[in-house]
Structures are given as structure tokens and as C-alpha cells.
């Protein structure tokens, strides 16, 4: 498996690009997030790569940032998601925005990414919540997590097993001015028991 590829950008036409490395052309598929920041053809470029070998094909994917490659790999660990949808995720939202959507359980925003339906978005929230924490680009290496009590309570309720939409509703109905996340969670759980 190749980790990084350094060479001259010989061709770029989404989703394909070719990197010339010492006279050998490597054809890669890349998300739009990478295409937006590529240098002009004929200039040097360094890409993080992901090599995928299947029974009937070999594919090479390129990314300008390590966080994009990691997200590409993590998204494919969700059952029912392959490289095509993983590229669509990176082409549709930034790594930080995707991490925020997963952390907050924003299923509606995830379903706006081409190829992702409601059930897939819900699986992504459940299966990726713990993985996306360290993908962001802030100084601490993690995306900004919500710091308002209602959002924190919503995430906690989801981690307790409530579906994203249900957790949002429960937190919204339980919140009162001045409540911290613990109080909102307590009131939401008490309300659920009635």
C-alpha cells in the first residue's frame, strides 16, 4: 500500500487525475475537496493515497490532506458504504463539517449528500461518532463540539441509544432557560419514563 505520492500533476479532470512520478503515470480518483486545492497541471504535488485491491480491480485514491484520507477510510467501515459514497461525502462537505454533523446527529444534513439516505445517515452517526472526534483541523486536533447544553444533551441521549430525531425532540422538550446538559438529560429521561 502506497502512503504518499510525490510527482508532477500531469492531468486533472474530476474525478480523475494523473501524477507523473519519474516517468510513470499514476491515475488516481480524488474527491472534489482535493480538486479545489490542486496546483496547475505541470506543477509538483504531494498526495496522500489509498490503494484498494478487489478481486476484479485495483484502484488508487488521492487526497491533499491526511484527514480526508482518514475520513475516506472510516466512512467505508460503515456497512453498505463503499468508495463511491465515501468520495461523495468528501465532495459534498468538509471534514470538519462532516464531523460536526455526525457528532450532533444531524441526519437531515447527512442525507443531503448524494447517495446517502436516512438509514445510511443514521448508521453513519452511530458507527462513526467515536471515530470523527479527532479528524478536525483545530489546534487540539478535534472538531469543535457543540458547547451549548441542549446540543450536549442531544448527543448524550443518542449515546444512550435514542435515535437522533428522538434525542433532538427529547432535549428540545426538556430544556429550560439556565439548564445545563445534565439537567436537560435528567428531565428528558424522566419525561420518557412517564
From TrEMBL:
CDD domains in alphabetical order: UBA_RuvA_C
InterPro entries (UniProt xref): DNA_helicase_Holl-junc_RuvA_I, Hlx-hairpin-Hlx_DNA-bd_motif, NA-bd_OB-fold, RuvA, RuvA_2-like, RuvA_C, RuvA_C_sf
Domain of life according to the entry: Bacteria
Region (Domain I): 1-64
Annotated segments matching region Domain III: 152-194
Cell compartment(s), UniProt: Cytoplasm
One Gene Ontology MF term: DNA helicase activity
Pfam families for the chain: HHH_5, RuvA_C, RuvA_N
Keyword field: ATP-binding, Cytoplasm, DNA damage, DNA recombination, DNA repair, DNA-binding, Helicase, Hydrolase, Nucleotide-binding
Ranges where the Helix-hairpin-helix DNA-binding motif class domain occurs: 73-92, 108-127
UniProt xrefs under NCBIfam families: ruvA
UniProt domain comment: Has three domains with a flexible linker between the domains II and III and assumes an 'L' shape. Domain III is highly mobile and contacts RuvB.
Function: The RuvA-RuvB-RuvC complex processes Holliday junction (HJ) DNA during genetic recombination and DNA repair, while the RuvA-RuvB complex plays an important role in the rescue of blocked DNA replication forks via replication fork reversal (RFR). RuvA specifically binds to HJ cruciform DNA, conferring on it an open structure. The RuvB hexamer acts as an ATP-dependent pump, pulling dsDNA into and through the RuvAB complex. HJ branch migration allows RuvC to scan DNA until it finds its consensus sequence, where it cleaves and resolves the cruciform DNA.
Assembly notes: Homotetramer. Forms an RuvA(8)-RuvB(12)-Holliday junction (HJ) complex. HJ DNA is sandwiched between 2 RuvA tetramers; dsDNA enters through RuvA and exits via RuvB. An RuvB hexamer assembles on each DNA strand where it exits the tetramer. Each RuvB hexamer is contacted by two RuvA subunits (via domain III) on 2 adjacent RuvB subunits; this complex drives branch migration. In the full resolvosome a probable DNA-RuvA(4)-RuvB(12)-RuvC(2) complex forms which resolves the HJ.
Family: Belongs to the RuvA family.
Protein name (record): Holliday junction branch migration complex subunit RuvA
Species this chain originates from: Pseudoxanthomonas sacheonensis
Amino acid at each position: 500500500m502506497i502512503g504518499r505520492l510525490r510527482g508532477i500533476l500531469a492531468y486533472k479532470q474530476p474525478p480523475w487525475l494523473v501524477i507523473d512520478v519519474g516517468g510513470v503515470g499514476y491515475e488516481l480518483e480524488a474527491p472534489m475537496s482535493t480538486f479545489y486545492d490542486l496546483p496547475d497541471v505541470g506543477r509538483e504535488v504531494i498526495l496522500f493515497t489509498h490503494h484498494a485491491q478487489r478481486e476484479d480491480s485495483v484502484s488508487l485514491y488521492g487526497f491533499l490532506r491526511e484527514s480526508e484520507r482518514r475520513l475516506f477510510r472510516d466512512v467505508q467501515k460503515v456497512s453498505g458504504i463503499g468508495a463511491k459514497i465515501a468520495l461523495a461525502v468528501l465532495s459534498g462537505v468538509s471534514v470538519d463539517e462532516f464531523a460536526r454533523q455526525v457528532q450532533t446527529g444531524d441526519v437531515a444534513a447527512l442525507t443531503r449528500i448524494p447517495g446517502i439516505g436516512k438509514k445510511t445517515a443514521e448508521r453513519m452517526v452511530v458507527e462513526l461518532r467515536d471515530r470523527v472526534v479527532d479528524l478536525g483541523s483545530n489546534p487540539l486536533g478535534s472538531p469543535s463540539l457543540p458547547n451549548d447544553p441542549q446540543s450536549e444533551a442531544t448527543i448524550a441521549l443518542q449515546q444512550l441509544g435514542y435515535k437522533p430525531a428522538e434525542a433532538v425532540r427529547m432535549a428540545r422538550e426538556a430544556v429550560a432557560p439556565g439548564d445545563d446538559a445534565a439537567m436537560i438529560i435528567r428531565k428528558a429521561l424522566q419525561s420518557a419514563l412517564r
